[in-house]
Amino acid sequence: MYVILMYDMGEKRVGKMLKLCRQYLNWIQNSVFEGEISEVKLKELISRAEFIMNEEEHDSLIVFKSRDQKWLEKEVIGHEKNDLDQFL
């Protein structure tokens, strides 16, 4: 499945969440990630994220899901932080 994930964390936990999400998805802008991921890997990511989150400080994680990226039109206005079309 294709997902767009975004989070809002207290600044003490932002670095940990960034590092975690980069293990599973492509970082596209500050606290926003996208990419193909299996249902099992997504559940694993969410479980690990919940361990980092602090409910008392109103941390949140939002995941938009689609069967495939082709069902989602993406338009970038301005500079794209992480160009996914570049190959090393």
UniProtKB/TrEMBL annotation:
The keyword Iron does not apply. Its EC number is 3.1.-.-. One of its GO terms (biological process) is defense response to virus. GO terms for molecular function: hydrolase activity; metal ion binding; RNA endonuclease activity. Its cofactor is Mg(2+). CDD domains: Cas2_I_II_III. Keywords: Antiviral defense, Endonuclease, Hydrolase, Magnesium, Metal-binding, Nuclease. Mg(2+) binds at residue 8. It holds the Pfam family CRISPR_Cas2. Signal peptide: none annotated. Homodimer, forms a heterotetramer with a Cas1 homodimer. Belongs to the CRISPR-associated endoribonuclease Cas2 protein family. CRISPR (clustered regularly interspaced short palindromic repeat), is an adaptive immune system that provides protection against mobile genetic elements (viruses, transposable elements and conjugative plasmids). CRISPR clusters contain sequences complementary to antecedent mobile elements and target invading nucleic acids. CRISPR clusters are transcribed and processed into CRISPR RNA (crRNA). Functions as a ssRNA-specific endoribonuclease. Involved in the integration of spacer DNA into the CRISPR cassette. NCBIfam families: cas2. This is CRISPR-associated endoribonuclease Cas2. The gene is cas2.
